[in-house]
Design a protein that fits this description.
Largest sheet: 5 strands, mixed
Structural class: alpha+beta
Oligomer: single chain
Distance between the termini: 89 Å
Strand order of the largest sheet: 2-9-8-4-6
Shape: elongated
Strand content: 35-45%
Length: 177
């Protein structure tokens, strides 16, 4: 019976129902806005997303940072890579990008190939950090080393072994090096 009265009350006063619905939507939108992360006007991309490196090669990539805001921004880069790699890009340099402009920054790394394993790709992360300490954008790319397969197998006494009629066994040797 109570449910029936509330429905009748809603039907008798549609203005009050609309006002309640509007208040509910307003409260819901405020709570969703409070949970949104802060919008960052800086967007970054890298030129190449996948590298294969060889002995003595420097890994070079180009980071593009675009300012999509009407305010000039200052930032620096933090590069996340394995600890035994050398970062050849200056991490203390502060970059300035004007409103609605882009900047292209070379990223250079010297990997330690003695500790790198073949056919494994290492993720390199580049963080665009504002001078206020907030991270505005993150880009990543992968660096790998080709797998080195250096072995051979020989069958002894010859490369081909033939079975004579009604023969089901043969002696052979395998040499793997």
């Amino acid at each position: 019976m109570m449910l029936h009265r509330s429905i009748v009350f809603m039907l008798k006063s549609p203005l009050l129902s609309m006002l309640g619905l509007l208040l509910f939507c307003l409260l819901l939108s405020n709570s969703l806005n409070a949970q949104k992360p802060n919008y960052s006007p800086l967007v970054c991309t890298v030129l190449n997303y996948d590298f294969m490196t060889r002995e003595g090669e420097v890994v070079t990539n180009v980071l593009s940072v675009k300012n999509q805001n009407g305010i000039a921004r200052e930032f620096y880069l933090e590069i996340g890579c394995p600890s035994d790699w050398k970062v050849l890009t200056s991490s203390k340099r502060v970059y300035n990008v004007e409103p609605d402009d882009s900047i292209f920054i070379p990223i250079r790394l010297l990997p330690n190939l003695q500790t790198m394993k073949g056919s494994i790709k290492y993720n390199i992360s580049v963080f665009v950090v504002g001078t206020d300490g907030r991270t505005h954008a993150v880009c990543s790319f992968q660096v790998g080393k080709p797998k080195r397969v250096d072995w051979s197998m020989t069958v002894l006494p010859r490369n081909r072994i033939y079975f004579l009629n009604d023969q089901y066994e043969a002696s052979l040797g395998i040499n793997v090096s």
